[in-house]
Design goal:
CWC22_splicing_factor, elongated, translation regulation, single chain, Initiation_fac_eIF4g_MI, MI domain-containing protein
Length: 283
């Protein structure tokens, strides 16, 4: 049993080493410390543990706890079909981050090659959709990444378009989380409603029950925000001539699908007015 734990932990460290990550899962232990020729005493332990470890059993328990955590994360990664070393490393960083800043900084340290950096957004969105309860941690982290590098924004758009294609076969919880995720990204102005340009919201034949429900949840989530934000969100797609088809689709969808929710009538009127705001005047 002990050998199995060591093997999994070592494999985890090897994955990180290959990707040149400084901070590995064993908290407080980094590669500079690992390779330091002047290591003394219980150098492998975080300072707070090393100072209180008075006997071998306590040290062993501390190490076992970290190794078990690594093992559990790798098992979870496998269950979520993280089938490459890059995807596993990204998954473990996102899922073990102390907060979005911690995860963001560690993701930046990954020396991903070629198209591997595109996996960051795909893994992030998948983690969000797999949660039992929607967690804004993922949208905040996604916004931070997009702010840092516009390539993440492009990757995210393509990722969302792929998920839109799967709506008819998507589980309800995943669909709900995806709708909230997109609404959050639009409301934070990380993305615009132009992300919906691949969807024909005015085509009744395409608006199956599941697709209709999904986009209704998305718009209703946006309409929960203050009027000024709603105005600015819809104005963003009002000033681009190339998005005329999208504007038509949104107006159609709001009028015949979403507007049945009478409690949001004023929000709908505001949105439709903003879609005609070709001058782009913001609130």
């Amino acid at each position: 049993m002990g050998c199995k734990r060591f093997s999994l932990s070592f494999r985890f460290l090897i994955i990180y080493f290959q990707l040149r990550v400084e901070d590995i899962l064993v908290r407080g232990l980094n590669w500079s410390k690992l390779l330091d020729p002047n290591k003394k005493g219980q150098w492998w332990l975080p300072a707070d543990i090393a100072s209180t470890a008075d006997n071998v059993e306590e040290v062993a328990n501390a190490i076992d706890k970290e190794v078990l955590e690594a093992q559990q994360l790798l098992q979870l990664a496998a269950a979520q079909r993280m089938n490459t070393d890059a995807r596993k490393a990204i998954f473990c960083i996102i899922m073990s981050g102390e907060d979005y800043i911690d995860a963001f900084e560690k993701l930046l340290r990954l020396d991903l090659h070629g198209k591997q950096d595109r996996e960051i957004m795909r893994v992030l969105v998948e983690c969000c959709l797999q949660e039992k309860v929607f967690n804004k941690y993922y949208t905040i982290l996604a916004s931070k990444l997009c702010e840092h590098d516009k390539n993440h924004k492009f990757t995210l758009q393509f990722c969302l378009w792929d998920h839109f294609k799967e709506l008819d076969s998507m589980h309800l919880t995943r669909s709900m989380h995806l709708a909230k995720f997109v609404a959050e990204m639009v409301a934070s102005f990380t993305l615009s409603l132009a992300v919906l340009k691949t969807v024909d919201l005015a085509d009744i034949k395409q608006l199956t029950a599941k697709r209709t429900m999904h986009f209704r949840m998305l718009f209703e989530a946006i309409f929960e925000y203050p009027d000024s934000l709603i105005w600015n969100v819809f104005t963003r797609v009002a000033v681009t001539p190339e998005l005329e088809s999208l504007r038509h689709g949104i107006k159609f969808f709001i009028k015949y699908i979403v507007e049945t929710n009478k409690s949001l009538n004023e929000k709908f009127k505001l949105a439709k007015k903003a879609l005609n705001n070709a001058e782009g005047v913001l609130m």
